[in-house]
Amino acid sequence: MSSFQNKIVLITGGASGIGKLMGKAAIKKGIKHLIIWDINKKMLDETVQEFSLHFPNVQGYVIDVSDKEHILTTAQKSKTDVGAIDILINNAGIVIGKYFHEHTHADIDRTMSINTDALMHITLEFLPDMIQRNSGHIVNIASAAGLVGNPKMSVYAASKWAVIGWSDSIRLEMEKLGKNVKVTCATPYFISTGMFDGVKSSIFVPINKPEPTVRKIIRGIEKNKLHVRMPLIVYTLQFFKGILPTRVFDLIVGDYLKVYKTMDEFTGRK
């Protein structure tokens, strides 16, 4: 079991959405210090001010995680200002929501740098300390899109598939090295936070609500779960994708569950 009690927690993209809600939940669990990284200074300042009313030990840093050098300097400043990170929650992410041929090269580079590369660079700044202390927890917020492709999500799906494979690999490495550093990878279906405004889903695959999603992720961290997936049907995807012919899987997921039509009216966060 992992405990939040008296721990230093860092959350990327922590000024809004489920990042902010995870920060609130972590504070309620009795953490020692909360570090929030976010690119939006206004929202970051507001969140830090809000949290500080009841929890003085919160520190915010404005950062663009697509910039590796910014990651390195901000990580060092965070460690100097606050201390070694116990629980790292890699939450920051973006989605473009276009057919692949409509993407620009800049769209591809930015999506992959924020959703995939940043997680690796950030973790590399904190994992060695965790290994040395033989204690820590890496939490990667991926997506169910990393398990099943979807129209208008090609680059986003690619970025999340990479996160899932990387998460499993570093988990296995920590186990092979006998280190008490846990890795949890969350793969939720769409969450109604604004990031996926306009998305429509069938009653068979409900869109996740933010608060229950955060509660499940926090419980998953505490229980050292390898994977946290929601809704329940997401746990079956790999099994059925593995045993069913591709066209049959597409028929069930695309035509019956209508997953392949979810992004048809996507607008995204304004």
What does this structure look like?
This protein is α/β, with parallel strands linked by helices. It has a single domain, classed as Rossmann fold, CATH 3.40.50.720. The protein has eight helices and seven strands; from the N terminus they run βαβαβαβαβαβαβαα. Strands 3-2-1-4-5-6-7 form a seven-stranded parallel beta sheet, sandwiched between helices. Strand 4, helix 4 and strand 5 form a beta-alpha-beta unit. Helix 1 packs across helix 6. The longest helix is centred in the middle third of the chain and has 29 residues. The relative contact order is 0.13.
In short:
The protein is α/β, with parallel strands linked by helices and 270 residues long. The chain has eight helices and seven strands.
Strand content: 5-15%
Topology as H/E string?
EHEHEHEHEHEHEHH
The general outline is globular
Low-confidence stretches: none
Q: Mind describing the biggest β-sheet?
A: 7 strands, parallel
Structural class label: alpha/beta
Topology:
Blueprint: E1 8-12, H1 17-28, E2 33-38, H2 41-52, E3 58-62, H3 68-81, E4 87-90, H4 105-133, E5 136-141, H5 154-176, E6 181-188, H6 210-222, E7 227-230, H7 237-243, H8 246-256
Helix pairs in contact: 1-6, 3-4, 4-5
Task: Name its key features.
single chain, 270 residues, alpha/beta, Rossmann fold, 7-stranded parallel beta sheet, 8 helices
